[in-house]
Amino acid sequence: MPLPEVPDHAIEFNRAAADWREAIRLAGAALVRSGVATDAYTERMIGVVDEFGAYIVVAPGLALAHARPGRDVRRDGLSVVTLAEPIAFGHAHNDPVSVVVGLASVSPDTHVSLVAGIANVFNDPGALPALRAATTADEVRAVLHGAEV
């Protein structure tokens, strides 16, 4: 399953966040702006970390903010937020985080497919540095869809 297209208003660059909760709220707000989810989904993404810890920090510098599918998800989608200053999420090996990808999906099957798709993107060791360096939405989309940047 290909990753969904990420609209310009679901991408934010060089944002300041005081802590990991605020970083997740930035990614969640981008999902809300693009019509993917509601504010309640953002709060559930924060609740996942409160309950299960910082397992969403899936690679050095990268957090994949997500929660289970639910009524607060309108359609499958992604958001991308680069942080002005890296933020500690509490992960023993992969902190601090400089890029937060928000993920929302309408079904468990789609959720698994989207997580796998994101994992494939970041199997490329150049993907995270390219996202950190991106200054346009087109550059972000090129990284997510495996194009040369």
3D structure, described in words:
With 149 residues, the protein is α/β, with parallel strands linked by helices. It has one domain (10-144): Mannitol-specific EII, Chain A (3-Layer(aba) Sandwich). Helix content is 39%, strand content 21%. The protein has helices spanning 20-33, 39-52, 108-122, 127-133, 137-144, and strands spanning 11-15, 57-59, 62-65, 77-87, 97-104. A hairpin with a 2-residue loop joins strand 2 and strand 3. The relative contact order is 0.21. The model has no long low-confidence stretch (mean pLDDT 95). It is found in: Cytoplasm. This is Ascorbate-specific PTS system EIIA component. Keywords: Cytoplasm, Kinase, Phosphoprotein, Phosphotransferase system, Sugar transport, Transferase, Transport. Residues 4-147 form the PTS EIIA type-2 domain.
What descriptive keywords fit this protein?
Mannitol-specific EII, Chain A; 149 residues; 5 strands; 39% helix; single chain; 5-stranded mixed β-sheet; alpha/beta
Strand order of the largest sheet: 1-4-5-3-2
- The N- and C-terminal alpha carbons lie at a distance of 22 Å
Radius of gyration over alpha carbons? 14 Å
- What best-fitting shape do the alpha-carbon axes yield? globular
Q: Please mark out the parts with pLDDT under 50 across 5 or more consecutive residues, or reply none.
A: none
Q: Number of helical runs?
A: 5
Give the CATH architecture.
3-Layer(aba) Sandwich
Order of helices and strands: EHHEEEEHHH
